[in-house]
Design brief:
Blueprint (H helix, E strand, L loop, with lengths): L2 E4 L5 E5 L5 E7 L5 E5 L4 E2 L14 E3 L5 E3 L4 E3 L4 E2 L32 H14 L4 H17 L3 H5 L6 E2 L5 H24 L3 H21 E3 L23 E5 L6 E2 L2 E4 L8 H55 L3
Parallel strand pairs: 10-12
Antiparallel strand pairs: 1-2, 2-3, 3-4, 4-5, 6-7, 7-8, 8-9, 11-12, 13-14
Length: 329
């Protein structure tokens, strides 16, 4: 597998292998136009690892379109413009009000987290299920949007969703609340599916994926702390079998960055513990997708085919619009 390194903007600047060696690197101009390099530093035309998360962590629709998908609309780094209006802003088409050095706009509506952990397993499972690229893109966009929604608003503050516990909360109670939430979302998934509400079922699954992935980021061992996966012997677990891994207090038990009073999550650490947790999170995500998507697809195949055709038409419209804007006057 490969691991993603990102900067303060959330832009992925390198992929590394299991030994920490850079296998691919990226550079961007101020508007996000990417350049690709192999592990030896030689220029290449595109990612040799199929990486689609690039500038500010957004989905790169290349090499044909050369556009970023910012969930609400498409963005051209060559034009420094979005190709659709921002539905929530008076700054309709400019990226970051034409000041990309000091501002970021990671949604296309005025944030980066669980993307690769969701996208990479989905790509494998979707191929096994025989989904077209357009169908996979439809499923992926709904899963990711719901996944990211867990870090916004009320959901962000409900710590039990993230395998965290409130200050001074008993750890057994925090785990119970986490398990109760997972059970509730699984019920939501099945009820939406049985009711023919295909998109809502995928949204419930996206939220579940986030909470399951957060177990591997926030699980804390009473003896080994954040080094549970690399302890001797390893102290591992999953949301199904947490063993001696408990919800961590936030703030409180999260490690500091050197001597600075800044809370850090182990998922950001570029060491063996991070890689072990990340690999297990990705494997668990794939396991759950292999369990739950085959239940969804037979009931929602017609719905998905219709959405995939809409996606293809919209992609072609955007490609033609992009070519029109780029053509000489």
């Amino acid at each position: 597998g490969v691991w993603y390194l990102d900067d303060a903007l959330g832009s992925v600047y390198a992929l590394t292998d299991g030994a920490g060696e850079v296998v691919e690197a990226y550079q961007y101009d101020i508007y996000g136009q990417p350049r690709f390099y192999d592990g030896a530093g030689q220029r290449i035309e595109r990612s040799q690892y199929g990486n689609v998360f690039m500038f500010t962590g957004r989905y790169w629709e290349g090499p044909l379109l050369h556009l970023y998908y910012y969930r609400a609309r498409y963005y051209s780094p060559q034009l420094g413009r979005f190709l659709q209006r921002d539905p929530l802003s008076y700054i309709e088409y400019q990226y970051c009000a034409s000041r990309p050095v000091i501002l970021t706009d990671p949604t296309g509506l005025w944030w980066l987290a669980h993307g690769p952990l969701t996208f990479e397993p989905l790509r494998i499972v979707a191929k096994k299920l025989g989904l077209s690229e357009a169908a996979r893109s439809v499923v992926c966009s709904i899963l990711l949007e719901a996944n990211f929604s867990q870090d916004k608003g009320k959901a962000f503050l409900e710590l039990f969703r993230h395998y965290n516990r409130e200050p001074n909360e008993e750890r057994w109670l925090a785990r119970f609340r986490y398990n109760l939430y997972i059970l509730r979302e699984l019920c939501n998934y099945m009820l939406h599916l049985l009711g023919g509400r295909c998109k809502q079922a995928l949204q419930a699954l996206g939220r579940l994926l986030h909470s399951w992935q957060d177990f591997f980021s926030h699980a804390y061992h009473a003896k080994h702390g954040w080094d549970a996966w690399t302890a001797r012997p390893p102290e591992k677990g999953t949301p199904d079998e947490p063993n001696d891994l408990w919800p961590s207090s936030y703030p409180g038990e999260h490690p500091k960055i050197f001597l600075r009073e800044i809370e850090l999550e182990p998922v950001f650490r570029l060491d063996a513990e991070f890689r072990a947790r990340y690999n297990d999170a990705k494997a668990y995500t794939r396991k759950k997708l292999e369990e739950l998507l085959p239940l969804w697809l037979p009931r929602c195949r017609c719905w998905l085919q219709a959405r995939a055709k809409e996606y293809e038409r919209e992609t072609e419209r955007i490609r033609l619009e992009y070519m029109r804007r780029m053509s000489p006057k």
